[in-house]
Amino acid sequence: MVNAEIKLISARKSYYLSSGEEIPVLKGVNLTIAKGEFVAIMGESGGGKTTLLNIIGCLHPLTDGEYLLSGENIGAVRDDFTLAFIRNKKMGFVFQQFNLFARLSALKNVALPALYLGRPRLERENRARRLLESVGLGDRLEHRPSELSGGQQQRVAICRALVNEPDIILADEPTGALDSESGLEIMRIFRDFKKQNKTVVMVTHTATVAKFADRIIYLRDGQVISDNYQLASKY
């Protein structure tokens, strides 16, 4: 039996115009992702990839259907505080635009999510320092984002996503703003995270990036049109 970390059952998501017109984005998606999988989600623009990622990340509610996270019916939760706690404790987010605070050092950017969980300053800064050292940024702790390259900024963003020791990383086009060498480094970090029996769900347009995943899911017009396992590429 699959050890399901993420399970969507007949998941539907629609948005509504001011006129009341319904715009369906996800149309009955059924999806199970096991703990420890590295999954790439691909498809054309407007196919529902980012919406699916946002639903998995508890950022958007479903219009209809079920969402089970580690067996719990998260789709039924509507309390924003509870959803925020789940996100901060269980998930880490990585985006194409690094979303770092310009006036904060790399160390403080990484440590910030741990503050939201109430962790003591020394604990969160020590954790942030270890993470930055693990991705080769031990000599950049006090640098601000403007003093770092794009690849370095994305590594800082990934460390920030990892600081609360999440079970799941959700990444939306994490290599989209990077050169190929920096992109390979990001995939190495994700593969190392997966080796700890953690789960990675990544949206990408790039086939060479998707090859680092264990599984590729294609979305078209809000529906899963293919779902295939593969032997992941080596970095």
TrEMBL record:
InterPro entries in the record: AAA+_ATPase, ABC_transporter-like_ATP-bd, ABC_transporter-like_CS, ABC_transpr_LolD-like, MacB-like_ATP-bd, P-loop_NTPase
GO cellular component, one term: membrane protein complex
GO molecular function annotation: ATP binding; ATP hydrolysis activity; transmembrane transporter activity
SUPFAM superfamilies for this protein: P-loop containing nucleoside triphosphate hydrolases (SSF52540)
Keyword Magnesium set for record: no
Protein name in the entry: Macrolide ABC transporter ATP-binding protein
CDD domains membership: ABC_MJ0796_LolCDE_FtsE
Organism field: Candidatus Falkowbacteria bacterium CG23_combo_of_CG06-09_8_20_14_all_49_15
Keyword annotations: ATP-binding, Nucleotide-binding, Transport
ABC transporter domain mapped to chain residues: 6-235
PANTHER family named in the record: ABC TRANSPORTER ABCH.1, IMPORT ATP-BINDING PROTEIN
